User: Fold this.
Amino acid sequence: MKHTLEELRSGSLLGIRELKISESLEKFPQEIFTLCESLELLDLSGNKLDDLPDLSRLKKLKIAFFSQNRFRKIPNVFKECSHLFMLGFKSNCIEEFAEDILPLSISWLILTDNKLTELPNSIGKLTKLQKFPLAGNRLTSLPNSMKNLQNLELLRLSANNFTKIPDFLGDLPKLAWLAFSGNPCAPSKKSHSKIVAFDDLEMDKLLGEGASGKIYRAHSKEFKKIVAVKLFKGAITSDGYAKDEMNAYLAAGKHKNLINVLAKLEHNHLGVILEFIKPTFINLGNPPDFQSCSRDRYKNGFSLKSKDIYKIAQAIASAVAHLHSQGLIHGDLYAHNILVNSEYEVYLGDFGAATFYDKKDIFLEKLEVLAFGNLLDDLLGYCEDKENTLYDKLVELRNTTSQKNVKKRPLFRELEF
Assistant:
């Protein structure tokens, strides 16, 4: 729910826990401090702010968003906000990130689409940090202090200037979701896909929308059938460039548990034509929220039998093993990117965070093996029947793929089902 500056000034918002104002503000409204005793979430995205006052009076502040403003540096105003765990400055003009200006409570820091060339060495003190989207900056390296981020689970380095991915990432015990497409160190692969004109399509209803684009149902005269069409926005998302996602779709190759790519659209349209998946397939889970941070959520009453979990796990492991045989990290291996039907037939989708890599760097695959282990851990928590050998086997598989020592984890092709 959005609020207005007029409402804030009238006093009618006293006691609220969440405040969202987007009115092209050029100055921070001082009236926000009348909410000191209650405010937990502050969202001033979509304004024209370039500075902030000391926010230490907002003693209960937990989440703060300042996306799409005009900040050139991260303001030194949060240090005393001891409950702040989520901070977002997406799509500003940030070039400067000074040392020791953030509270140690931060677990989710969003700096996507800025102009950062380096990070402060003090970033390594944020040992509670779990999610760190940095796509769309100008970084060439990461501070060695980041090896202290033993709780870091998700890292987005796409669309920067890295010539090498730091080796210490392979020593972080919880890092499971990594993306670095759109960097000099990420190999590029050309595909020889069929090209179809946009005019070939009779566009129908919108099926879904994500950060990188929209998916439509359409009829293709070329293929003489109903297809799905993903049209990319072309902007930088939290995962990277849309064109890199498109290239990953095209280069992924065919596998029974991947949605088949039929063609790409002609050069003046950034998009792909996909096999249409019946509406009987639904998302296995829902994306993480503020509270779950890096783990998916599941609908009320969700449960699975051990044989169903086994079927899902086997299909996903096979699909991801295929991707890695192509030198491709999925990067976003989550239940919300998995489609299932009532028979637990499976499709893995969404290549927004996919990255080509040199297969000699096997630690990169072993990071994704942990994402698979996390998925298993989630699903086993909803298992109906835990007193059988199949459940025990799944627990063993979860434990094997979730080892803290990255080097000891198996590769996907080595998993035993």
